[in-house]
Give the backbone structure.
Amino acid sequence: MLDNAIIEKFRSIVGQDNVLTSKVSLVTYGYDATADLPKGNPDIIVMPTSAEQVQSIVNLARRSGIAIYPRGAGTNLSGGTIPVEHGIVLSLQKMNKIIEVDAENLTAVVQPGVIIQELNNAAAPHGLMYPPDPGTVTTATMGGSVAENSGGLRGLKYGVTKHYVMGMEVVLANGDRVRFGGKTVKNVTAYDFSNLFVGSEGTLGIIVEITCKLLPSPKYRRAMLATYSTVAEAGNTVAAIIKAQVIPATLEIMDNMTIRTVEDFAHVGLPVDAEALLLIEVDGMAEEVVVREAEAVVKCVAANNGELRVANSDAERDKLWAARRAALPALASLNNTVVLEDATVPRSHAGDGNLHPTILADKHNADEMARVHLAVDEIFEAALRFGGTLSGEHGIGLAKMKYLGNEIGDTGLDLMRTMKNALDPTHMLNPGKLVPFPKQEVAHATR
Ligand SMILES: Cc1cc2nc3c(=O)[nH]c(=O)nc-3n(C[C@H](O)[C@H](O)[C@H](O)COP(=O)(O)OP(=O)(O)OC[C@H]3O[C@@H](n4cnc5c(N)ncnc54)[C@H](O)[C@@H]3O)c2cc1C
C-alpha cells in the first residue's frame, strides 16, 4: 500500500482526475486480456498526459522504490501488463495525440496512447496507411503495439510493427528522455536503439512518442473465401500459393469448429458445413497485377478441391474480415478459459507461419488445466523443432518466460539480463516480465 503523502505527490504531477485509487479501478487494472494467469494488485493507476509528466512519475517512483507497469489498452495476450508486485499501473491512454501525418515523407508522429485505427483514419485522406493491424486494431494503442511488436492480419505481405517504427522518444528508468532514429529512410547512426525498444514489453523504458512509416494504400484488392472438405486441402492450398510466389496481404485458415463458432457469434454467412476455409486477399497498386495474382490463387484453390467465393463489394469484404476478427471473442464464449497461443513456424507451413492453437478449458478444473499446460509445452516444443519461435506476435510477458531459454539458450538469456540491468538496474520497469531472473538476483536488485 502506498501512503497518502506519495499518492498526493502523484496527484500533484498529473492532476486529481488522472489518479485512480478506488477498489474498482485497482481490480480493473489488475489484469489484461490474457487467460489463465493470476490477477495483480496495483496500488494506484496514474494517467499522464505529457512526456514531462512521465519523467516526473518515473523519478518519484524510483526515489520511492515503487514498480511501474506501463499499460496501453491492456489487450495483450501474454500477461504483459499484469502488476505482479504492488506498484503503479502507468496508463498511457491519455497521451493520445496524432502529432503529425507527413504525407511528403510518408511518416507519422504519434503519442503512445493513439489507437492504431485512428492513425489509419488520419492517414487515409492522404492515400496512406499504417499496415500493422492486430485483431484489436480498433482498441489497441500504438505504444502497446510497438512495445509488443504486434503483427496482424496483413503480416504475410506487409510484415509486423518493427518494420514500420523509424524512431521514438523514450523515458528511461533514470528519468532521462532520449530520442532514437527519425524520419530518414536511411539511418545507420549508432546502435539501432529503436529496434531494441520495439518488443521490449515495457521492461526497458516508457515509449512517449513514436515516428512510424506509412505506405501508399493499395488501390486494388480482391478478397476471396475458399471452402474445403478437409483441413489438409486447405493447408496444401496455402503452401501452393506461397510456392506460386504470390504473397497475399491476408491468408488465414479456420477449421470447422472455429467456422461454426464464429458463425453462431457473428452471423456473417460462413459455410458451417465446410471442414476448413481460407480467407485470402490480394492487393496492389496495379489492377492487372492484382488480377493476375487472384487468378493464380483461383488455380491453387481448384487444384486442391476448394470452392471459391469472391467478395463482390466492400461490404462483403468487410464481413469476411469481421469473421476473422471475431474468432477469438467467439471461441472465448464457449468456455470460461481460452488459452490462445501464437507459436510460429516458417511460412512454407502456413501463410505467415503464425499459428493460433486455441485451447478451451475451465480454469476451476485443476486436472483439466494440468493437461492444458502439458499441451502448451508440446506445442512450443513442436514449433521450435520446425525451426519456429515461441511467439509470432503476442510476446513473452509473464506467460512464456519459462520457455524462453529453450529458444535463445543460456547465452541469449544472459545477454537479455545484461541489457535489462544496464537500462533498468533496480528492475522498476515491468518487473517479472519477459526477462527471467534467478530469484536471488531479483531479490538483490533493490529499488
Ligand atoms: C481479440 C484479440 C485479438 C488480438 N489479435 C492480435 C493480432 O492479430 N496480432 C497481434 O500481434 N496481437 C493481437 N492481440 C494482442 C494485442 O491486441 C496486441 O499485443 C496489442 O498491440 C497490444 O496493444 P495494447 O495497447 O493493448 O497494449 P497493452 O496490452 O496495454 O501492453 C502491451 C505491452 O506493452 C507495454 N506497454 C504499453 N504501452 C507502453 C509504452 N508506452 N511504453 C512502454 N511499454 C508499453 C506493456 O507493459 C505490455 O508489456 C489480440 C488480442 C485480443 C484480445
About this structure: The longest helix spans residues 366-385.
